[in-house]
Amino acid sequence: MQIRVRFRQRDQRTIEAAGSSGQSVRDLALAAKVMGILGECGGNCACGTCHVVIDNAWIDRIGRVVPGSVEDATLDFSSNREPNSRLSCQIALQPELDGLIVTVGNDV
Amino acid sequence: MNSTPTFEGLDLDLINPPVTGLDATFDRVIRSSPETLTRASDDIFLDPDLSRNPVVLLERLRDRLGYVVPGSGTGFGDLVIPDLFGDTRLGPHFAIFGVDEMDQVHMDPASAVNKGAYGTLGESTGMALGQKQGTIPTVEDGAVHDELRALYDTVLNHNTMAQRSDKIIEPICNWLIDRIEWKLKHGESVCLCLDLAVPLTYKALSTMLGVPHEFLSDFVRLGDLFFSSGFQPEAGSAAANELYGFFLDEVEKRRVEPRRDLLTYFLKATLNGVPALSPEAVAITGRFVLIAGIDTTWRQLALVMAALLSHPDQFEELCLEPAKLSRKVVEEGLRYAPSGFVVPRRTTKSLVLGGVSIPAGSHITTYQGIANRDPRRWDDPDTFDIHRQFKTNRTFGVGVHSCAGQHLARLEILTCVQLIAQRLPNLRLTIEPDQLEVRGLQIRVPRTVPVGLG
After folding, report:
1. Which CATH fold would you assign to the domain B7-453?
2. String of b and e for A26-65 (b: at least 16 CB within 10 Å)?
3. ipTM of the assembly?
4. Can you give the residue ranges of every domain in chain B?
């Protein structure tokens, strides 16, 4: 099943992409060339350059970042951090996330 | 890319044993650590200036010849640099100094591969007793790499490692700081290499792996020889055999009587119903994990502390806000003073990097120690500045072959930095920063980091 994600870029453009179950949102963003997602550390939760802000309608299904976690600390390296911020390398696509909406967090 | 394999029989609680042996015996082991531990393996094979100042010399080379420099047989440009890995200069070879060019290489694992890149050293990694007994992700590509790396990642990922912080890393670090305080109070000299970095990294990983700490001195000596295989193949091979024999004995003990440790964890892991690793392959894995998890890590920890204490104003700022600044210190330390300085690859097809044509079959050495100072990416890159805007350093590499142990390494360094800032805010170097002797090219190491209380 293809799981659809809508990426809102900081320039207001929207990129629609579809990935498969288990694929990270970061990997999907890179494949779709979403502007502002760099994923420099290769998905190792170490750089903060795959930062996304989860849309309010989806945050309960994804969950906010765990306070005190490595992801939480790494998000401090990102710009424009918000309560719904997550690192997209830590979000794996599942069928129930079909239609997910995220906004790219970091400025380009 | 293949989908991530799903292993069965994984029990992460096996690698959460209690830390034991933080006692007088461990103190004696630390005191008996030979000073040769802090000798760089490749120092005697390098031009002294290059061993002392690779950053200065290689930046000059970069500024003259560019971010991608063809090899000259004896080195690059007019700089004589020996073949660090053995038998890697039989054809075209290139040095990469730029971060963009390095990323292009590392983000294309099909075009720039590990196979054949590590030369004599690489061939020795899976060998013991004259035969290939197993392998490690570092020298593999494709599906073989992905499967083995996925198994390593079940243990070494950031979540699993973070869960061991308060049970394993913090108790060891606090005990070592207690010991440092005692030594300083009683007028004994303290070196952050031998009194902190080496015992912390060894104790933490040996606790998880199930290796007795009495083996520390032998183990680090043998690991040092093993890492020098590119320069001393016979000595490296002998050391590799001795280590393999030790681990094979330990694996056999666990086959008969499982214990709560990483060797048992790897023995029990299955993939599609069959063992993921043979006992021989588990021994190879144990040997590699212990060396890789100690040799580079303790040196990196020592280098970060040396860089920090060389800038006492920034150390003072850290001590005022350790929770806020510790991670910044770690990342800037990794950027400014990486211990692992180079990573090799071999091209499977022709590439163009930085405007330079690289034929298929070429050997590439990416110098992350110089890429971390790319002026196109970092302002004032030769300045240690914990407040600089964060941009991902390349010390652990990027992509599928990025360092599997980076999360454990980061955690150990972060814990040290934070606890020292909290407990020893008046720690200082007892020598001038320009007297710190850092040596080596393949893996950089300070000869000593002597400290006292100011």
Report:
1. Cytochrome p450 (1.10.630)
2. bbbbbebebebbbbbbbbbbbbbbbbbbbbeeeeeebeeb
3. 0.86
4. 7-453
Q: How far apart are CA B262 and CA B16, in angstroms?
A: 9
pLDDT, one tens digit for every residue, chain A (108 residues): 899 999 999 999 999 999 999 999 999 999 999 999 988 888 889 999 999 999 999 999 999 999 989 999 999 888 899 999 999 999 999 999 999 999 999 886
Interatomic CA distance for residues B327 and A71, integer angstroms: 12
CA B207 from centre of chain: 18
Residue B1: pLDDT band (50, 70, 90) is: very low
Please say whether the beta carbons of B176 and B195 come within 8 A.
Answer: yes
Helix (H, G, I), strand (E, B) or coil at B144: helix
pLDDT in tens, B143-165: 999 999 999 999 999 989 998 88
Q: What kind of fold does domain A3-104 have according to CATH?
A: Ubiquitin-like (UB roll) (3.10.20)
Question: Is B398 in Cβ contact with A22 (below 8 Å)?
Answer: no
Partner-chain contact B390 A48, CB within 8 Å: yes
Residue position matching structure tokens 């030594």: B183
Cβ distance of A77 and B390 shorter than 8 Å: yes
> Following CA atoms B423, B416, B196, B188 in sequence, which dihedral angle do they give, to the nearest 10 degrees?
-20
Instruction: Using a CB–CB cutoff of 8 Å, tell me whether A92 touches chain B.
Output: no
B159 contact residues in A (CB cutoff 8 A)? 69-70
Of B3, B392, B396, the CB nearest to A49: B392
- What is the nearest CA distance from B153 to chain A, expressed in angstroms? 10
